[in-house]
Design a protein that fits this description.
With about 325 residues, the chain is an alpha+beta fold. The chain is about 35% helix and about 25% strand. The chain has twelve helices and eleven strands. Strands 1, 2, 3, 4, 5, 6, 7, 8, 9, 10 and 11 form an eleven-stranded mixed beta sheet that branches. Strand 8 (about 220-225) and strand 9 (about 225-235) form a beta hairpin. It is elongated. The chain starts with 7 loop residues before the first helix and ends with a helix.
Amino acid sequence: SSAVLPSESDKNDFSRYLLRISLIKTYPEAISMKKGNKSADWFIRKSKKGKPRELEKLISKTLLEKASIIVKRLFSQGVKLAIDITKIPVYAKSKSKFITHSNAEKGTTAFYQFLGFSIAERQLKFPVSFHLMEKEDQSNLHTIIKEFLFQIIQKIKINLVIMDRGFISSKIVQVLQDLHCSFIIAFRKSQKFSKLFNALENPKVNERDEFFIQGLDQTVHRINSKCWVIHNYSYGKPKVNVNLVIWKAKKSKSKKKKKSKLKHEYFLYITSPDVKPEEVYSLYGTRWRIETAFRQIKDQQAKTRVINPCYRI
């Protein structure tokens, strides 16, 4: 783009640099130190300072347009969409509004955080949009998701939205309901569910078609020997009604070592009413495909020490 690389010669140099990266599958930083070779930092010094949000919109628009063409050809019935947040470490003391801090990881406590949207089909793990988060965005996450989801569903038919337990805010669920999106979100286990898990350990309770849990003041319906559902489960502010699906699985070896009276491991998911409870466990497993999409994006990053978020994008 001429806004980033001002002259035609810069564009040609940059094209050759990217071609070399794509051919040898590595970033030739050591080679670039030799006379006549150029590194990522060289192009950054030559380029103009851009506006992160404008660049973000341009790239997201390009990704979405490419994805819509592929989906229309291969997945005319629609696709699953995974939403997650990935972190990119920053080794600097910058106080930029785009840099957040959390526990030490990969030798630093500073990170860029990207909210990513990716198609999560086995044959197509394709990033369709992303958002470079600011420090205050976590409290306004539902508004950001609404804006991006609205743009995506205009171009691509989405059959199901899948998210992890970091997105259980009732405001986010309300956004999905308003946009008429089917969804599966992993739900957090809390102390109030302990009576439910203990009850499911009882073989006699397992065989009942339904039973009542006083701690939750809810009726639990049996789907099969591994799956139960609570219809119209209400939670959050504002209140939202969802289906709460409980799934029983064998404990992993590492978790068997931990002291627990439960012989099995239990997973909780909140879903829209149209999602079949018996399919929730396997469908949620496809969420991990967004990690492949994140890895594809990160593989394209140039190695640089520059903090400016435009270059990180």
